[in-house]
Structure to design on (847 residues):
């Protein structure tokens, strides 16, 4: 006979004192909640994340933390098990109390660089998915990147293949959830791995007196294993940059490559092509591409001496894909954009090509203020 | 279907630099006239006029899928506007009536979601049918090199099989730019068979831009880490309606979560937990929650159905007390019975009827029987649950005062999707079918006797267990 399924919690009663304390704290909590709501209300609408971006960001952040967590937890537990610490191993393997909640509450995830990377990646993905697809004029002609897979130059063909593989890996299979890897830049990946290891340590050490040394050793071994297995060169962005370098688009080829990559919804490839010819980092080019204001992008296109037709095609595709961009407005400014002298555009963009650290320092100093 | 049908007429139009219509093909001229325009005047269909102006200002050809009002109807059009000689040349095709309401998500997106939930892995091609995307882990799982297949023609990965009519569904689909399903193929070099489904992608000008597809493995062999020797795996009888074996899990995953959310949110709107609400809105939310529960019940039924139709389906032979199971089932339905103003007369606390069966499954059968009895009882009626021993079987009888079941319908109610009155709300038509399969799997049975106007009596039997002898085996 099966057991009585009736809930038999022994009605833990809360003492009067505790209740009073809680009631007193409620005032403070209510005030804090109000202040957060007030702050939220007065946020300027155009700098808030829209709901789609916000939820995509939440999904990405969650799956990243969970991917790292699973890797470290599983390997750590295996190490502990092999080292005769089966109780600790069991505790570590236990999936309760997700690390994400702890890291969010700690404020560590508010890391500007991490969030900048994640938000940019989410915006880039949303933009790419919304681009108007361009069908083939001639159905026999393969799409842009598939033509490069057939390229006689092995470096180019391999580069195209690598981009296809990386993109397939990034998009994942039907079982959504864990990623195959975080695909973060190496420094950010490092940061995240150690945070997750620390959060796991705290969780296990709190609930279990046990041997903290053994736990530390196992977690740090597992984290290091995860770090050494990680290669930021496998990132989709990195493979696209390598491919763009292999193509090394010449001025005559560039307009078609840019327009066609957008028509194939290969936003990463578009960004990499642009980054390569501009001689800037992928991350910077991505900022320029996803920025709905678009001014830096138009300047960049003019700096490359692209004609009105190409600027119009790129601008049209991006306006169609991004509800924050105003197509009418773009059409109004198109003539002015086309009239910009290429040399002047290059001068205006020169700060973008400074050494990234130097550029970051200049920007940081400007933000900090306190100057003359 | 979103793709342009090549048989649909293409109407050409020309607009001068001032936005005036110079000439228009028949259909375009008619549409424009019905909108109050004429040749020589500005184009009167606002969406097309906007597009023409944009093409002129940007100086590039642009295409868009446009919905234009035509009298009472909405027309779905593919419009391509190309700057030409200072004016704009228009190509308008499509010309199909659009359903009045459509979900916000675009069709390929929705199809993608569906594929994602039901497929073993996914693939996409460009217009030349070269692969542009593959679920990367599928290769390792099913014994092919996914990375080498990217960029290759789809026929490099799949050896396509003809269907009964001697056609390749995929090629017919390319020609018609339609979706296809049931394209059988062999994964080259692995001996494994797959079923391919896909929907076409269409660009804003209505041109074919490739397929978004799914692959379902037809052989039920567990995925091997390496391909091993080539085995010509026969295609086994598909377990349920042609769905792959893992269908129920995917169904579960795809539907249960979203439905749970819908129900929970609709319930909290209906309960007005977030603040007061107009009463009719709260009621709508209650309807939504109920419909959600109904769907969830259907999902449960389908998952059960798939489980019990498997050859290896077994139930546990636990010593259970049928009286206790019946009391619990009655208790679970007490709220619903009270709402329907039906009294359920449960077995008394002292009664026992030791039988052998699986507790969970026996409970499921009784909840179904008592639930039906409550549903078909008029207000103020009574549902009786009685226990009996009949030789080596223990019986529980659920009797109601409903309208009863005609003799000729009594076999039908146990059939899959067999419902006597399809207009009646509620129920998937699977409940009794599943209940009888479960009863028989446990060595018992489920039968009915009834006459119209006399109520129905369902008799659920399980093998009687001698409590003394049974205890020797222990639980």
């Amino acid at each position: 006979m099966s057991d009585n399924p009736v809930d038999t919690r022994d009605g833990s009663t809360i003492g009067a004192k505790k209740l009073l304390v809680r009631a007193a704290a409620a005032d403070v909590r209510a005030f804090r909640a109000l202040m957060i709501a007030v702050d939220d209300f007065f946020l300027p609408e155009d700098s808030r994340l829209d709901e789609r971006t916000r939820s995509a960001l939440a999904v990405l952040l969650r799956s990243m933390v969970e991917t790292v967590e699973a890797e470290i937890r599983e390997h750590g537990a295996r190490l502990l098990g092999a080292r005769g610490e089966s109780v600790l191993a069991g505790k570590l393997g236990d999936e309760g109390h997700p690390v994400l909640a702890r890291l969010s509450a700690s404020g560590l995830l508010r890391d500007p660089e991490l969030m900048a990377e994640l938000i940019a990646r989410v915006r880039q993905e949303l933009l790419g998915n919304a681009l108007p697809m361009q069908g083939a004029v001639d159905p026999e002609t393969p799409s842009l990147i598939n033509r490069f897979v057939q390229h006689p130059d092995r470096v180019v063909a391999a580069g195209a293949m690598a981009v296809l593989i990386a993109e397939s890996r990034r998009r994942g299979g039907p079982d959504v959830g864990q990623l195959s890897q975080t695909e973060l830049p190496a420094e950010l990946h490092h940061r995240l791995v150690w945070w997750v290891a620390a959060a796991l340590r705290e969780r296990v050490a709190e609930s279990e007196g046990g041997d903290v040394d053994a736990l530390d050793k196992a977690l740090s071994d597992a984290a290091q294993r995860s770090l050494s297995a990680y290669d930021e060169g496998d990132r989709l962005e990195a493979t696209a940059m390598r491919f763009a370098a292999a193509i090394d688009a010449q001025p005559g080829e560039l307009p078609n490559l840019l327009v066609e990559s957008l028509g194939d919804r290969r936003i990463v490839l578009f960004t990499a092509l642009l980054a390569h010819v501009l001689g800037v980092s992928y991350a910077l080019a991505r900022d320029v591409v996803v920025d709905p204001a678009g001014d830096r992008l138009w300047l960049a296109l003019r700096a490359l001496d692209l004609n009105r037709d190409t600027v119009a095609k790129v601008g049209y595709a991006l306006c169609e894909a991004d509800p924050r961009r105003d197509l009418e407005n773009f059409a109004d400014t198109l003539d002015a954009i086309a009239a910009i002298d290429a040399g002047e555009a290059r001068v205006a963009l020169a700060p973008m090509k400074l050494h990234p650290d130097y550029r970051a320092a200049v920007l940081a100093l400007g933000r900090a203020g306190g100057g003359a | 279907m979103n793709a342009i049908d090549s048989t649909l007429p293409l109407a050409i139009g020309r607009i001068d630099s001032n936005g005036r219509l110079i000439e228009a093909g028949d259909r375009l001229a008619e549409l424009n006239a019905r909108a109050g325009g004429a040749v020589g005047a500005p184009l009167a269909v606002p969406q097309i006029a906007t597009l023409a102006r944009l093409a002129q200002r940007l100086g590039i050809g642009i295409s868009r899928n446009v919905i234009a009002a035509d009298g009472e109807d909405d027309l779905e059009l593919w419009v391509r506007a190309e700057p030409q000689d200072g004016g704009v040349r228009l190509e308008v095709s499509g010309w199909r009536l659009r359903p009045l309401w459509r979900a916000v998500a675009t069709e390929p997106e929705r199809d993608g979601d569906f594929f994602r939930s039901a497929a073993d892995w996914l693939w996409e091609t460009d217009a030349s049918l070269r692969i542009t995307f593959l679920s990367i882990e599928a290769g390792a799982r099913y014994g092919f090199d996914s990375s080498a297949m990217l960029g290759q023609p789809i026929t490099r990965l799949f050896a396509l099989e003809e269907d009964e009519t001697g056609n390749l569904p995929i090629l017919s689909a390319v020609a018609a730019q339609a979706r296809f399903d049931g394209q059988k193929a062999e994964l080259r070099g692995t001996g494994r068979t797959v079923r391919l489904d896909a929907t076409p992608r269409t660009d804003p000008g209505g041109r074919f831009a490739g397929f978004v597809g799914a692959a379902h493995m037809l052989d039920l062999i567990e995925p091997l880490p390496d391909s091993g020797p080539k085995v010509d795996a026969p295609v086994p009888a598909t377990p349920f309606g042609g769905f792959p074996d893992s269908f129920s899990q995917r169904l579960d995953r795809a539907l249960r979560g979203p439905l749970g959310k819908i129900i929970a949110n609709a319930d909290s709107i209906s309960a007005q937990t977030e603040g007061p609400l107009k009463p009719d809105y709260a009621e709508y939310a209650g309807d939504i929650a109920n419909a959600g529960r109904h769907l969830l019940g259907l999902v449960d039924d389908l998952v059960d159905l798939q489980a019990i139709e498997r050859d290896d389906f077994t139930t546990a032979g636990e010593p259970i007390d049928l009286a206790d199971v019946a009391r619990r089932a009655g208790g679970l339905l007490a709220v619903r019975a009270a709402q329907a103003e039906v009294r359920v007369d449960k077995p008394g606390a002292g009664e026992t009827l030791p039988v052998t069966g699986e507790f969970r499954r026996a409970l499921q059968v009784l909840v179904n029987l008592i639930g039906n009895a409550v549903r078909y009882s008029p207000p103020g009626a009574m549902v009786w649950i009685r226990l009996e021993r009949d030789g080596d079987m223990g019986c529980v009888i659920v009797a109601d005062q409903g309208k009863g079941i005609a003799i000729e319908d009594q076999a039908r109610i146990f059939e899959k999707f067999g419902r006597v009155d399809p207009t009646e709300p509620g129920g998937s038509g699977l409940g009794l079918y599943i209940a009888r399969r479960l009863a028989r799997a446990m060595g018992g049975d489920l039968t009915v006797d009834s006459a119209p106007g006399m109520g129905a009596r369902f008799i659920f039997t399980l093998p009687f267990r001698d409590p003394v002898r049974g205890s020797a085996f222990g639980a």
